[in-house]
Amino acid sequence: MKNSYLIIFISTIFSLSSVMSQEMEDPSILSNFSDGPYVFISNNRLIEKKILNGEVTSRVLEPTRYDTIFTPQKSRYENVENIAALSDIHGQYDLAVEILKNNGIIDRNLDWNFGKGHLVIVGDVFDRGPKINEMLWLLYKLEIQAKETGGRLHFLLGNHEYMVLHKDLRYVHDRYTISSKLLGLEYDELYSNQTIIGRWLRSKSTIIKINNSIFVHGGISEEFISKNGIDLSDTNQIMRSSIQRSKQEMKSTDFYKTYYGKKSLIWYRGYFYDNLADADISKILTQVNSEHIVVGHCSNEKVVQLYDYKIFGVDSSIKKGTYGELLFIKNNQFYRGTLDGKQVKF
Ligand code: ZN
To answer: Which of 21, 22, 63, 316 is the most buried (most CB within 10 A)?
Structure first.
């Protein structure tokens, strides 16, 4: 028995490490391999790199092509009529596009179609799946288009965004092992502070409030409130500036435990697994002055509500690549937006 486990273990290690060499040695696989763009900022120049059929191409872009400075957005919004929330896309770009299209958030050309609505991406676009970069660029574009029509796209950072930005690359898809190798960079360097998407990500929030709902990837625990308090924009700023801090340095105080531990905003799973009493949830909501909390991070088959509509879970297992939903909030009514675009009232 032990031997067979050992063989499986060794062969798994072997197959993982040989993915790269197989891909690199087999020209037919590499000749179909494409990825990008990745846009780097170097000496005030914008350099776009793409991989096309296994070949890296590089060109200098007009300096005005992309913003290079991204100002953090507000943490609170009032009087928003339409809200949609989608979470834990994990590189399943095609499925996410299908959900957004069928629910009228984007049109057939993948352009913003949600008017003055606010779309909240509740974290974890990164890791597991194969189309991270496509998703990031789509969200980047939609954010600009949303603003132009009076809407907003909010990309909240989840634990997997923070993992990649802190060089924890355990969940990166094989496709990006190849891309990194071809581009001669570590995967996290494709989203460094010297890239457009990397800078854009570093301006993002972790927690926001729209009307009477708070949106955050993991959740708000009592332990977090007792240590950190409840100021949303301060918290967002603390999380943003922590991206450039090393894990080792953060771990030298209890900072890491508070902001990156099991009870932190990005890792907490208590609403789903800790058997909290209704009174515990009500207390948290009172402390954060909100009526609802919308979270991702814990996967369910569909968008779910817990604790008498106080908590909504919007990680609908998109990571599996077969089905997913989003949450709509209109006039304080909650609906599941299904994959085929039906709106089912809670
Ligand atoms: Zn997560």
So the answer is: 316
pLDDT for position 129: 93
Cα 285 to middle of ligand 1, angstroms: 21
Which pTM does this prediction carry? 0.92
Q: How far, in Å, is the centroid of ligand 1 from the Cα of 77? A: 24
Q: Which residues make Cβ contacts (< 8 Å) with residue 196, sequence separation at least 6? A: 39, 41, 46, 66, 67, 68, 140
Q: Cβ distance 280 to 57 under 8 Å?
A: no
CA of 47 to the centre of ligand 1 (A): 32
CA of 132 to the centre of ligand 1 (A): 15
- Look-up of token digits 């350099």: 47
Taking the centre of ligand 1 as the mean of its atom positions, its distance from the CA of residue 216, in whole angstroms, is 10
The residue count of the chain comes to 346
Contact 182, 189 (CB under 8 A): no
As residues whose CB is below 5 A from the ion ligand 1, the structure lists 124, 158-159, 297
**3-class DSSP string for 59-126:** EEECCCCCCCCCCCCCCEECCCCEEEEECCCCCCHHHHHHHHHHCCCECCCCCECCCCCEEEECCCCC
Number of neighbours of residue 188 by Cβ within 10 angstroms: 17
Report the separation in Å between the CA atom of 195 and the middle of ligand 1, taken as the mean of its atom positions: 24
160 CA distance to ligand 1 middle (Å):
6
Gap from CA of 197 to ligand 1 centroid (Å): 20
Asked whether the beta carbons of 247 and 289 are under 8 A apart, the reply is no
What superfamily would CATH give domain 76-345? Metallo-dependent phosphatases (3.60.21.10)
Residue spans of the domains in the chain: they are: 2-61, 76-345
Q: Measure 269 CA to ligand 1 centroid, in angstroms.
A: 9
